[in-house]
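Data card: per-record layout.
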Amino acid sequence: MSTKVGRFAELEPEFNSYVGAINYATMVTVDSKYRPRTRVLIPVWENVDGQPLGWLATYRTPVKEAHLARNPHTNFSYWAPGNNSVAIDAVATGVEDRADKEHVWELYRRTSPRGAGYHLGQFWRSPADPKLRVLRLEPWRIQVIRGRDLRSRIWQADPGARNQLAEKALSSLS
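The structure for this 174-residue chain is written out next.
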């Protein structure tokens, strides 16, 4: 049975624990014929003014770029033996701002939440590296499932924020 929580803070400690321990997430995008594509990546997450916000350091790949240009909705799924899991529905937006890239570089360096991330210098020279693609991930739904008893808790952005994310996603398709 799933229960809804009113504030992200109500499931944030469990979210941070699972994401930090699992580290790798399966990212799902959808092509123009509605076929899903998955890839395993390591996003980082933070709490900004009580709301979850994610970031993904990645390369610009033709498939992922085309999928997100057509439909910026994505899902990240974390799972570990024992069935602790986290599912995140989000809208992904490309970021070019240098200050944002430096912030993301630091989040990955220190791991956020603790354990999730790595030093980006393994793949890119600096936050200014033109090969570094940063995606801002704005969650609108997060589900955390505790494996030992399958207790499920769900946070959703308030309806106004969900509508804004949906409008933003639709306008980016135009």
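Known properties of this structure: The longest strand covers residues 133-146. The helical segments are 12-22, 62-70, 98-110, 159-173.

See the next section for split statistics.
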